[in-house]
Design goal:
The chain is α/β, with parallel strands linked by helices. It folds into 2 domains: 2-175, 3-Layer(aba) Sandwich (Rossmann fold), CATH 3.40.50.720; 179-299, N-(1-d-carboxylethyl)-l-norvaline Dehydrogenase, domain 2 (Orthogonal Bundle), CATH 1.10.1040.10. The protein has 13 helices and 10 strands. It has helices at residues 10-21, 32-41, 63-66, 83-86, 105-113, 155-166, 177-198, 202-207, 209-229, 237-246, 255-261, 272-282, 287-296; strands at 2-6, 25-29, 43-46, 52-54, 59-60, 71-74, 95-98, 118-131, 134-147, 170-173. Strands 1, 2, 3, 4, 5, 6, 7, 8, 9 and 10 form a 10-stranded mixed sheet that branches. Helix 7 (177-198) packs across helix 13 (287-296), helix 9 (209-229) crosses helix 12 and helix 12 crosses helix 13 (287-296). It starts with a strand and ends in a 10-residue tail after the last helix. The relative contact order is 0.11.
Length: 306
């Protein structure tokens, strides 16, 4: 199976390296210093699940040099999703799957390439670029969940699942990938927004009575939007999320908090911004996320002072 990893950062770098180490025909699309380091030194993954060093690694900044593949694994930040750059990787039999944040990625890819070429996906992992050419994986959690948008168990999903399993990746075929993506989003949008808003990791936020209540209200708003949209989520989804939050490491922050403190562009529009826009569309109030979006919008392009 020929696989293109469009974005070799924390997510793409980790899973692409696992697939490559197992003998897969994996091609990384990267840029800048990260690209240069992978070209000269290979791609390293530091992980409690086992360190990896892919050298030489197939890496380029030109998708046309790779050509059509069997699977495109899209893992760039949401604001870097440029379908025209992905298009050289997409042939008549190509499957495109996003493991990005947010709830709109599959829809945007389906609009660009046709729904018949797209499956939905989400991942549970803490990973990031520690240095050019180096991916750091925090903890041991690293799971891929993916499936057809209509829930059927297709040959292409089965084939990709087998490829992942053969590479030692914890992978699951979902019968309702939309619900799985939204289940993650009900956690991710509040976690990203509140930690970035307060410039703090989760520990002190969950321990303080008022900030914990604020986090819960932000979670309830996303859950209400999901329900208004018709997404099938369990009645106790908010309680489950709060239990999950209580089990996180005290010093754990979101990638958006990290991007904010580093002066990088934020995925705000695809997280709290999406909650707000969908809430307005569906007639569902989202006052907490309204504040988060307003408070962070001047930093969203990475140019504001923190």
């Amino acid at each position: 199976m020929k696989i293109a990893v469009y974005g070799a950062g924390g997510i793409g770098g980790y899973y692409g390296a696992r697939l490559g180490a197992a003998g897969g025909d994996v091609h990384f699309i990267a840029r800048g210093a990260h690209l240069a380091a992978i070209r000269t030194q290979g791609l390293r993954v530091n992980s409690a699940n086992g360190d990896l060093h892919i050298h030489p690694a197939r890496v380029t900044d030109d998708p046309a040099a790779v050509g059509p593949v069997d699977v495109v694994l899209v893992a760039v930040k949401l604001y870097d999703t440029e379908p025209e750059n992905i298009r050289p990787l997409v042939g008549p039999e190509t499957t495109v799957v996003s493991f990005q944040n947010g709830v709109m990625a599959a829809d945007s890819l389906a609009a660009a390439f046709g729904p018949e070429r797209v499956i939905g996906g989400m991942t549970q992992i803490i990973s990031f670029i520690a240095a050019p050419g180096v991916i750091a994986h925090g903890g041991t959690m690293a799971k891929l969940v993916f499936g057809e948008l209509d829930g059927r168990r297709s040959p292409r999903v089965e084939a990709f699942h087998q490829t992942c399993t053969d590479a030692g990746i914890d992978a699951e075929i979902s019968p309702d990938i939309e619900a799985d993506i939204w289940s993650k989003f009900v956690f991710l949008a509040p976690f990203s927004g509140i930690t970035a808003l307060m410039r703090l990791p989760i520990g002190p936020i969950r321990e303080d009575k008022r900030t914990r209540a604020l986090f819960r209200r932000a979670t309830e708003e996303v859950f209400a939007v999901a329900r208004a949209k018709g997404t099938r989520l369990p009645d106790d989804q908010v309680d489950r999320n709060m239990e999950f939050v209580d089990g996180l490491p005290t010093d754990m922050g979101s990638s958006m908090l990290h991007d904010l403190t580093q002066g990088r562009r934020l995925e705000l529009a695809w997280l709290s911004g999406t909650v707000v826009s969908l809430g307005r569309e569906l007639g569902q109030p989202t006052p907490t996320h309204d504040v988060i979006e307003a408070a962070l919008k001047l930093h969203a392009d990475g140019s504001g002072e923190v």
